[in-house]
Design goal:
Elements: H1 2-29, H2 33-47, H3 52-62, H4 70-82, H5 86-98, H6 104-116, H7 120-128
Helix pairs in contact: 1-2, 2-3, 3-4, 3-5, 4-5, 5-6, 5-7, 6-7
């Protein structure tokens, strides 16, 4: 009996890790951005979720459920880039373009890297800002 109980106990923390991030994704997909934000924040703090940074960055970049804040968006998206999220490079590039003093050189670099890695959002963002890739 003990041998059967041990694997179940080991799985419980793994199931808990998915809880807040999964809640955030569900809320995000349903357009409940305030709940998504709170869930993603908890996913980072309590679960150590790295991917939650990407979605928080998007929320702040687009002002979904929060007041748009480009600096906060850049911080979260940069964290997502650190773990290899190529889509985050596209949106980080857009954040650089939306700054009061746009950093077009950095944005182009990120768009080219993301596009080269197959992140289709980069081509769409480049087209939106009339940036050739």
């Amino acid at each position: 009996m003990r041998r059967k109980l041990l694997p179940a106990l080991l799985l419980m923390p793994m199931l808990a890790f998915a809880t807040y991030f999964s809640e955030g994704m569900r809320a995000y997909k349903q357009g409940d951005y305030k709940t998504a934000k709170a869930s993603f924040e908890r996913a980072i703090k309590q679960e150590g979720s790295k991917q939650a940074n990407f979605f928080l960055g998007i929320l702040y970049l687009k002002g979904l459920g929060v007041k748009q804040n480009i600096q906060t968006a850049k911080r979260f998206l940069a964290e997502a880039v650190k773990i290899g999220n190529m889509r985050a490079k596209c949106y980080l590039a857009e954040a650089y373009l939306l700054q009061k003093n746009p950093n077009k050189k950095m944005a182009i670099k990120l768009l080219k890297e993301g596009n080269g890695a197959g992140a289709t959002e980069c081509a769409a963002i480049a087209a939106k800002y009339k940036i050739p890739l």
